[in-house]
Write a sequence for this structure.
């Protein structure tokens, strides 16, 4: 086992690590072994969820002390940069946050994270997690991360008043019906019926269209090589995507997702495709006149993304890190985390008391639906592949060249796909 001595202070560029303790003031924790948990959860529901896990960890793991290695800002971009530098300098935290799935591939290749397959068996995760999720987390018959909770990406959110004013009272069930509703909204005077942001939000929309046109199995095959990006089916899906984008705001490439959500809240759009974390933005803006439905044509497909934690090969306190991971994996931990963050438990046997109506609906769909990963959120593809897809979509957003988009996406798959 490789171990390293953790630096007392790690400063990379202009970003400093903020180190805090979950122990209360006045506690004598000098005899405790610390477990550094590296995340980008610095505020809001994310920090509240992390704090809940930290409290359970302190309670469940006597002799261990939670140490927060948080790097705020940039929605994780800054944290990933700091983490990469620390790992390169052999200054690994005991555990770090990462999007579950393909985003871990580079860390696995570099031998920076440990195989947790035995722990999955011991902690009952193989039975408690959906089989499709376990399959997506498995690399060469091994599993390297523990999801803390699950968010859903393929959800459409509405401004009910805007839709009602256009005479739209029923959620569309198919892409054809969705496009018809977008046309109706524009005829009623809504300039941008679909609120849309830049890069990864466009990739989210494309993925939902691909799921509708290909089905969940063939969609997932796009990232494993069993479905070809240059197929006629993908060509037709890109044509559908191009048609839908025509109904979005022309300044989409300059807006982050909360700014796009503002268009929906302000009544300048009728629909937005966005993950279920958007409810926090709605609440922050005291907006309640919305509804939601699964993207038309996706059926029972649940496109998931999950924040997860790993055990680093350079952990100074591997046993403490394992206890942290067991806390994260437990039904109690998953419930406490999701209750505060607004996600849902990855485990299908975790309690749901205190959940919102939306969370309860999502839990039911998670337990009965078909899980598929998301390239936009690192569960289906690696970070370089995601970057290439975002660049291709950005170019399409400007040019409108669907042939060039399909060619660029096929080239990215050829470059980054991993053959079995």
């Amino acid at each position: 086992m490789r171990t390293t001595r953790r630096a007392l202070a790690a400063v990379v560029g202009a970003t400093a690590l903020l180190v805090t303790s979950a122990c209360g003031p006045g506690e004598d924790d000098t005899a405790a072994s610390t477990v550094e948990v590296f995340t980008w959860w610095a505020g809001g529901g994310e920090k509240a969820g992390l704090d809940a896990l930290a409290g359970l960890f302190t309670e469940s793991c006597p002799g261990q002390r939670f140490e927060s290695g948080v790097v705020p800002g940039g929605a994780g971009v800054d944290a990933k940069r700091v983490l990469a530098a620390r790992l390169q300098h052999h200054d690994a935290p005991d555990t770090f946050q990462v999007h579950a799935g393909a985003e871990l591939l580079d860390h696995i290749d570099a031998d920076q994270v440990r195989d947790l397959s035995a722990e999955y068996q011991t902690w009952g995760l193989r039975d408690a997690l959906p089989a499709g999720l376990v399959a997506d987390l498995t690399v060469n018959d091994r599993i390297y991360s523990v999801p803390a909770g699950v968010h859903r990406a393929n959800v459409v959110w509405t401004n009910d008043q805007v839709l009602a004013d256009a005479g739209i009272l029923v959620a569309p069930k198919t892409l054809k019906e969705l496009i018809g509703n977008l046309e109706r909204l524009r005829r009623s005077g809504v300039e941008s019926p679909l609120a849309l942001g830049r890069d990864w939000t466009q990739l989210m929309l494309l993925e939902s269209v691909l799921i509708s046109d290909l089905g969940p199995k063939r969609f997932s095959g796009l990232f494993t090589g069993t479905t070809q990006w240059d197929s006629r089916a993908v060509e037709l899906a890109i044509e559908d995507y191009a048609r839908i984008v025509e109904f979005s705001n022309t300044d989409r490439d300059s807006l982050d997702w909360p700014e796009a959500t503002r268009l929906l809240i302000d009544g300048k759009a009728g629909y937005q495709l966005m993950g279920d974390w958007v409810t926090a933005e709605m609440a922050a803006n005291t907006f309640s006149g919305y509804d939601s439905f699964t993207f038309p044509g996706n059926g029972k497909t649940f496109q998931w993304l999950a924040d997860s934690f790993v055990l680093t090969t350079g952990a100074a306190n591997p046993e403490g890190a394992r206890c942290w991971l067991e806390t994260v994996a437990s039904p109690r931990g998953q419930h406490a985390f999701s209750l505060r963050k607004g996600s849902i438990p990855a485990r299908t046997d975790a309690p749901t008391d205190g959940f919102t109506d939306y969370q309860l609906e999502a839990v039911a769909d998670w337990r009965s639906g078909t899980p598929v990963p998301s390239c936009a959120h690192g569960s289906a593809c690696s970070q370089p592949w995601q970057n290439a897809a975002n660049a291709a979509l950005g170019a399409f957003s400007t040019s409108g060249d669907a042939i060039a988009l399909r060619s660029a996406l096929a080239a990215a798959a050829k470059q980054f796909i991993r053959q079995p």
About this structure: The radius of gyration is 22 Å. The chain has a mean pLDDT of 91. The longest helix spans residues 44-60.
